[in-house]
Write a structure and sequence with these properties.
Helix content: 40-55%
Number of domains: 2
CATH superfamily of the largest domain: H-NOX domain
Structural class: alpha+beta
CATH topology of the largest domain: H-NOX domain
Largest sheet: 5 strands, mixed
Number of helices: 15
Low-confidence stretches: 1-5
Radius of gyration: 22 Å
Strand content: 5-15%
CATH architecture of the largest domain: Alpha-Beta Complex
């Protein structure tokens, strides 16, 4: 049954690399699984946005089909959060573990609209907790991914020998835990209201060592908005999927996990038509390619699904009032 909510949960495209690299490292066809769950196979701007639900499908399908019961934990271990391109610049200046976790709790929702974390001081310890919105109840793989990632953040200060005294999991008791070596050193309870790891108080004062490339710079794309309303969320999804040329109304409805009829009805609520949003998304992508790359006009036209450069040029002139070549020249003069 399709969802009727106006909320489409979005996540930074940078996190797609975590899954791709882990699958490739384990001899799994990343493209095949990305296509299976309707995630783009093309390289994307890491700051662009993708629907989050397909990631939840992906992590479970790979674990099941490839007989990798700890796949969620492997994804986190292969590319820890502090090495994810969209997240690393936001936390790499942390001076202590407490500072790092407080910053992370503050900015986590800038990476995923369904995500939230809290750090709380207790009588004898601190708790680092997931306070977000699980998209599926009792999801084993996503919880393994999340808790492994949380532990790895703490280990940036404590070292890799440290593990929580106790862990609380939302999922029911599951045999996958036995295969996940990353959780074997902690006392674990199941069926809790949230995911929690305990941290000894003295650890919070430890300095943090985050090793990321000095060339990694924080980039901000104003057109990307995790808190977008329904129409803007659809537009942003289209921008990410245009390069795969899977942007029919049927494709986008499937990606957004709603029916075509529901998509049309919700767009009507905003006095919008599907083709209008699609053209806006193409315009965003065209400007990005003209400004940030040296791609030929015919290559950009092909990416956007035009049969030839002339058709693309006419469309771009309608949108911008200038030709693609003139737009590129103007941008270069301003820069």
């Amino acid at each position: 049954m399709r969802s009727e909510t106006d909320n489409i949960h979005l996540v930074k495209a940078a996190f797609k690399k975590q899954f791709e690299i882990t699958m490739i490292n384990n001899g799994v066809s990343a493209d095949a699984y990305l296509k299976k769950v309707n995630l783009p196979t093309a390289d994307l701007d890491p700051e662009s946005l993708l629907p989050e639900k397909p990631f939840w499908h992906l992590i479970n399908i790979v674990a099941r089909d490839e007989n990798m019961p700890d796949f969620g934990s492997l994804v986190a271990q292969t590319t820890p959060w502090h090495k994810v391109v969209s997240l690393a610049p936001l936390i790499h200046n942390s001076v202590s573990l407490k500072n790092l976790l407080e910053i992370f709790c503050d900015i986590a929702s800038s990476q995923s609209s369904a995500t939230g974390f809290t750090l709380e001081e207790k009588a004898s310890h601190y708790t680092f907790s997931y306070a977000g919105m699980p998209l599926y109840k009792n999801d084993v793989q996503m919880e393994l991914y999340r808790v492994t990632s949380m532990i790895q953040l703490v280990q940036l200060a404590t070292g890799i020998e440290w593990f929580p005294g106790y862990i609380q999991l939302m999922m029911n008791k599951n045999s996958a835990i036995k295969t996940c070596g990353f959780l074997k050193n902690s006392e674990i309870t199941f069926s809790n209201k949230t995911s929690v790891i305990s941290i000894e108080k003295h650890c919070l004062h430890l300095p943090v060592n985050i090793d990321i490339p000095a060339s990694l710079e924080l980039r901000s794309k104003s057109e990307y908005d995790l808190d977008a309303d329904f129409a803007n969320a659809i537009r942003q999804i289209m921008t990410a999927y245009i390069q795969n040329q899977h942007c029919s109304i049927e494709d986008i409805a499937d990606i957004a996990d709603i029916s075509v009829r529901t998509l049309q009805r919700k767009l009507k609520k905003y006095d919008l038509k599907f083709n209008d949003l699609l053209n806006q998304a193409k315009f965003i992508m065209a400007k990005e390619k003209l400004s940030d790359t040296e791609m030929h006009i015919y290559e950009i036209a092909n990416i956007l699904g035009y049969s030839d450069a002339a058709n693309f040029t006419r469309a771009f002139h309608r949108w911008a009032g200038v030709s693609p070549g003139e737009y590129r020249q103007q941008y270069q003069v301003v820069m």
